[in-house]
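Recap from last week: sequence in, structure out.
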Amino acid sequence: MPRVGGYYAQRSGAQQGTGRSFENGSDAMKRVLAALLALLFSAAAAVTMGFAGAYQFLAPELPEAAALRSVKSQMALRIYSRGGKFIAQIGE
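Predicted structure tokens:
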């Protein structure tokens, strides 16, 4: 931390007591944009790694696509009217 009126404050051309000078706002803006870009990149990497980890965790339990296409109903679905009259049966 620079001392007030010390070597670093005098060398950087800052006003006495501040320790740092931004003559134009572009330097500060570049730092803010760089920090936001780094934060955005880090968040995207974390989300990607989260999805990859979830897939690695769930992959052994996922069934094959062919097994999902040939699902057999274990119990027939019976459809009745409000009055209790049998209308149709879906499945065996």
